[in-house]
Amino acid sequence: MSILTYILGWPLLAALALVLVPRNYRVIIRAIAVLATLISAMLAVKMFCQYAGAPVDADGYRFVQQIPWVESLGISYHVGVDGLNVGLILMGAIVAFTAALCSWEIQTREKEFYILLLVMTGGILGAFASLDLFFFYFLHELALVPTFIMIGVWGRGERRNYATFQITLYLSIGALIALIGLIALYVKSGANTFDIPKLTEYIAAHPLTSHAQNFIFPLLLFGFGILVSLWPFHSWAPLGYGVAPSPTAMLHAGVLKKFGLYGLIRIALPLMPQAAHSWMNFLAWLCLGNILYVGWVAMRQRDLNLLIGNSSVAHMGFIFLGIASLNIIGVTGAVFIMIAHGFLAALTFALSGYIYQKTGTLQISELGGLCRPLRFIGTVLLMAAMAGCGLPGFANFVGEVTVFFGAWKVFPLVTGLALWGALIIGAIYMTRAIRNILHGPVPENFSNLPDASNPWRKLPYALLLASLLVFGFLPKLLTEKINPDAQKIVSMANPTLEKSNVAAVFEIRNPQSAIPN
Hints:
Blueprint: H1 3-19, H2 26-50, E1 62-70, E2 75-81, H3 86-101, H4 110-129, H5 133-154, H6 160-189, H7 196-205, H8 210-228, H9 236-243, H10 246-256, H11 258-271, H12 273-299, H13 304-325, H14 328-359, H15 375-388, H16 395-408, H17 412-438, H18 455-473, H19 476-493, H20 502-505
């Protein structure tokens, strides 16, 4: 049995086990959730470390397991990893563990919350590990439904119900559009299989017609784009994250939102290269809406969670820019940012959750000087803000620089505007927020706030921050894994080029030398 089955299976089994535990056994319920996510995270770390030495199947995947299910439709339980998703699964498992640790803020209906959290975790990890289109989509929906429930029941603030309605409406529409695109891909391909490697191989030998590509690709682009908060379909995200309980925001903003981006890279680009080329210029300009417009909106925010939510949406623009470049540097950088942003988003929402629990507010004007009473939390928040600004030493810097290198040769004007957004707009709203929250006089009622004093309370923040620093100082841990499979995507997305000439066309004779390490 593949280690991936255990990674996604432990949270789902724990969710089933919690159904049998009486709701007044609060300590046991929390312990089961934390233990299950810890085991899953440890297995993900083991898988990541053993990746290089693992056997590779004929399609280039490792840790593969396939069990036929509905053979007449070509549906099977098929999991495996390559360079595109091995880092995402590692990031998702670590974020899930830290989200379980940060769930101490939940004081009502704890049993139901942890069951939903574990189901969400299993669905997320399963969606990224799946090599079957049916389970790829089904497991994403399995993770998405708990999001709506958790915001509606455990959300905070007067706009909770409105935010729940909006996020449900937007994400349901996005998922429906993507589903139509995936079904159309299955029907139009004629391969009679949902298996992604077989589908890829079949379409490589029997390319889709131009008409089919031009019909399916926009469905996947905008369906997945809505799920990712592509501008102008982004307004659900900041509001939803602003009212969501911290563990939910950590998992959704940090991990689940990457599903649409991963789907574009894994499915849309290689299977519909002609349509991809015709839409990439439009996507490159559209992503400026995320970087510039949403960045300006973030500058105007007076609520910390809304600022973080808008910042998260703005960072999606850099990933879309890397995808739009359709070269190896840009695609590698896009995958790198997906992983780095997952850690960063989880860390910032975890910190805002701690501040809200201790102060009762996230209004920036009501906070101040928190670095004095909250020395550990304040220090980590300062470092997270610097990571969000793209400071060297953090993983976000590596990903953004790589994307800019890749996009500059293709979209110099767009890249220049994106650089301005990253260096100026992002720096302004992050540094201003840090100044107002952590520095200056301490409000009298906040002078004796308790800091995260014991190692167990510090662990989730330290683990997420350490992940950003490890991949920031040692990006080769990721780039060596991502690079070969990014090359495959680029080769398939550029069918008019010989595979051996793809690197030369983009002036990358040695791909690893072009990526910071």
